[in-house]
Design goal:
The termini are far apart. The protein is an all-alpha fold and 226 residues long. The protein has seven helices and no strands. The protein has one domain (6-216): Methane Monooxygenase Hydroxylase, Chain G, domain 1 (Up-down Bundle), CATH 1.20.58.220. α3 (74-109) runs antiparallel to α6 and α5 (142-172) runs antiparallel to α6. 83% of the residues lie in helices and 0% in strands. 38% of the residues are buried.
Amino acid sequence: MTRIVEPIIQDLRQKILQMGGLSEEILKKSMRAVFDRDREVALEVPADDLEIDRFDISIDDAVLRALALQAPVADDLRLVIAIKMMATDLERVGDLSRNIAKCAARLADHPEVTIPSKLKDLAFEAQRLLRRALDSFSESDVLRAESVLDDDDQVDDDQDEVVRQTILEIAQHPEISSQGIDFILIAKNLERVADHATNIAEEVILWTDGRNLKHATKLQDDAPGS
């Protein structure tokens, strides 16, 4: 087996980091549309998502070329596979951001209501985990990747609190049920963004450290004697 030539590796790294940066921007834009009640900004998001899809296709092609034209050694093979898996997660982040933007557009069309107090915390945590996961890749930082896994529970807690607050508000004010449903959908999409950040962190750990942590908790819970 031979090492993949450096230009191919650098091209793949550059593409995935550009895709990651765009994924972050589209997520920020969709949340800005929510908090600012900005329908015009929300309507820009689908075009941004198409650009993410183009990156996904480009990375697919580059990965196939790398594997077809080279016989990569183990380290290079893990990196190429990690980049391919990361691209899939980032493409999903784009889709989730588009979902949030749809909710933002609907909210802008309805009478203004109080935004659940925990939604800003949830948005901040989801964006922070995505940034940290991408940084862990660019810096080959296992400890930073592990910190993403450690902090994912906070996002779950914030999502649960947004849902709880919203359900209580709908119970007291049924006339805002449409807006409340959109807030719940936004919270669920943000939680899924954090899940994809966790996936990216797991790919970084597998690439740099050779440890496969996917489904580790479920497998440990299912082990005999657990």
